[in-house]
Write a structure and sequence with these properties.
By secondary structure, the protein is α+β, with helices and mostly antiparallel strands. 21% of the residues lie in helices and 28% in strands. It contains 12 helices and 27 strands. The longest helix is centred in the C-terminal third of the chain and has 15 residues.
Length: 527
Amino acid sequence: MSSFMNMACIGDFDPFTAAIPATKVELTVSCRNLLDRDTFSKSDPICVLYTQGISNREWREFSRTEVIDNTLNPDFVRKFLLDYFFEERQNLRSMGSRMEKPLIGIPGKKCGTIIVRAEELSNCRESVMLQFCGNKLDKKDFFGKSDPFLVFYRSNEDGSFTICHKTEVVKNTLDPVWQAFKIPVKALCNGDYDRSIKVEVYDWDRDGGHDFIGEFSTRYREMSRGQSQFHTYEYPFNLRTCCQVTLLSCLVDMELTFLDYIKGGYVTNSTVLGLCPGNPSQPTSLHYMSPYQLNAYAMALRAVGEIIQDYDSDKMFPALGFGAKLPPDGRVSHEFALNGNPQNPYCSGIEGVMEAYYQSLKSVRLYGPTHFSPVINHVARYAQSVKDGSQYFILLIISDGVITDMAQTKESIVNAATLPMSIIIVGVGPAEFNEMIELDGDEERISSQGRFAERDIVQFVPFRDYIDRRGNHILSMARLAKEVLAEIPDQFLSYMRTRGIKPGPCPPAYTPTPALHPLFTRRVSRI
């Protein structure tokens, strides 16, 4: 199931007219009475949000919710977070705080209703780690006890409630202890400490018809007292007995941002350029060296490189190629220095990388097959030596989509997911890029030999989706850079958070030394 909401057109970025977002808006999606598409059970719905560009009017996937099994009335926990531009996105404002529309799908059949609720998010940066347990919960299963889980809702101004979290299910017990979970305070109560929070207790059923056990209400201010003492909530399930849910711990922390780490001096970058076969002198080649414009490889390299180099202190980038026959003996290499110096493959800035790329096209013969794993392992060796978070590596791979060592590449990515590094893959040319999409891991976490990647570190983007149809290459490059770098901050933060690495202190503000008066300077020089 997809949501066809055209009230928010945020998919386009024009560097000449871009405005600063006025605020961030959170969209919460629910559906009712969906059409059942499964034969022996109910549907397993998911909601996908598409956004429409301003100039080309093309629809692009923005994000998607989680899948909820066996239900025709889903309340999705995962939200859509949009930048709202007051001057440019007026049609978002027109939908109000709540919108309900019938879904359009199969002709002649009622497909159900979609409900979208929008709320402007506060700037609260607190997060809270909560853990609950239950005691003497109601027995709902005939042959066992209960399989309880908790559902948290924050209240809205109109008295309704919006789902914000679900715990895991604890099987076959009336005295569950749920795992601790971390949630931003703005997701729990939007920064309003006295906003009502409703918690419902359910018994999980395989068919999706979960049995209601009970509910209680609280507030964030009340829960925050749990930092020093337990807090027990009681609710009756019959005239004689009460169920109990106890808040075991409440740990408040400040949400750190990507900018906090940048200010502390973090992030370094490693740039790798992949070379696919082709004759640079032929106009049909992706490496064609036109005297009038950049080729697709050069545009992708410059678009991404000019941004990531600003987060590097020395702006020295190791630039590697793969898939070529090297002089003088024609040896095939899947990991060679673009500047021709294997002992020192570093280039000065993106201009240095561009120059090395052009020189390599003249000195090597591009040749398949194309292996990704050697260059991934190359950067991983650097990242392995600085796992304290003082440096973070960004690997940029530009290729035409043909991967001949897919199994080894998956294994390399799974191993690299434990290291301080991210991988950006830009696909150029007309290929289908099915293998690249598989590596991305947005829909399904990548795995190798039964091991799943610890976190998602790969972002894949096909360049052709962001090329301006009017031939504006600057706009095409800006769109590409915006898309490929969108996930880097979250990937960076996921590594730092799981390792408990805090940002370093900000350097002292620069204070210029007052210039000496010329007369005073000359007088000193005579002494």
